[in-house]
Amino acid sequence: MEVRVRYAPSPTGMQHIGGVRTALFNYLFARSRGGKFLLRLEDTDRTRYGAEYEQNLFDTLDWLGIAWDEGPDKGGPYAPYIQSQRFDLYRKHAFELVEKSVAYHCFCDVERLERIRTIQTMNKMPPGYDRACRSLTGEEVAANLAAGKPSVIRLKVPLEGVTRFTDAILGDIEWKNEDVNPDPVLLKSDGFPTYHLANIVDDHFMKITHVMRAQEWVPSTPLHVLMYQAFGWVPPTFCHLPMVMGSDGQKLSKRHGATSVNEFRSKGYLPQAIVNYIAMVGASYEEGRDMYPLDDLERLFSLEHLNKAPAVFDYKKLEWFNGQYIRLLEDADLAALLEPFLEKAGLPMDAVRQKLPEILPLIKERLHFLTEAPEMVSFLFKEPAVPPVEELIPKKLDRERTKAALEAAIGFVQKAAALDHETAEQLARDTAEKLGLKLGDFMMPIRLAVTGSRISPPLIGSLAALGADKAVARVQRALAERF
Ligand code: GLU
After folding, report:
1. pLDDT digit string (tens) for 307-324?
2. Contact 379, 448 (CB under 8 A)
């Protein structure tokens, strides 16, 4: 049987790491099995819907290279793939369940439902509908409908027994029916379906074979299984993905750092790094291997690689991957990616374009993400501020020795800018030794004086890129202004 999976987001917020991970695993599963990956917009909640979120969904998946075979823009054999365009189908199926006596009209108004909730809260009872309308007679229902009383349609959840399903990742799951949401609404009084109804009807008609989604949907799944039974349909295989946690073991949220893909994107993360890292959150592939480009994952992926246990999202690890993928880029591609960030930082772009090929190999080795670049290279284009004296003095040195080191540095800087890297490095070591200094203590004040920053490319390359005259002038300026 052909594997058919879907990513079914509700466009009610920016795409976040968790959502994209669900999309990615579905995509990889389809690709690895020669199946189809669908994108379906679950936009039934019109109050929380936002066109900008929908756009962000398309943009994000495009940027990451997660392509769908059927979807809102692409069409496909079961179009439309937008729930708000399928309301007639849901309505028809809700009424079909009423016909079959596995669902019923409920006429309780908001006031009554609120009263029930207040009583339940006061008595510390679990919340839920009290099933009052479940026992209305056929005549009572007909009379209410004829009188034009607004109604919703609720599912008759069995009062006893258990509902079971086997999750492809989590194993056997059993739920007492008495613990399932008592008679959830399937169709609202305005004719809009709820998530549960629309989701099940679509998965059935779109011939979804595996429902792979976040673990937070596990508690809804017994209800979904009951709905498949009510319709007389075979449920798909459920595969619930382990939760993504922050380092403190709590569900990943803004408290832990960036969660929307846009935030990572504007910080200068590469899509390759995000894909590689999130494919590893809660999954393991080959022993001892970290780098998995998307096309390798497409071949390698299988459900057996997914862990049951919750996964921790490690921001540092993602940063590491980003550095790795930056280093894999061709210089010209990296330059093109850096341009918007350098421009945004207000650097003179003509000069930047001229200088970038020379400086790129230096910063490529050090970047974790692209937004670090402006700070690293701006000393080439702008006169940096001279750092305060306490920053210029290395921890183990005092003012006098730092001054002497910087004075001796003038000769070194003058020569180093024109020497090849190795000779310049030897000269640095010799000069430091003559002064009785560790190499680092000799170099750091020079770096700070010349670049104004601790985060700069390797010093010798920086000196060459800046040119001897400017570099010497900056050391002199630091001496004059701070010592
Ligand atoms: N629309 C739901 C969501 O936004 C889909 C859940 C599911 O995959 O069944 O997460």
Report:
1. 999 999 999 999 999 999
2. no
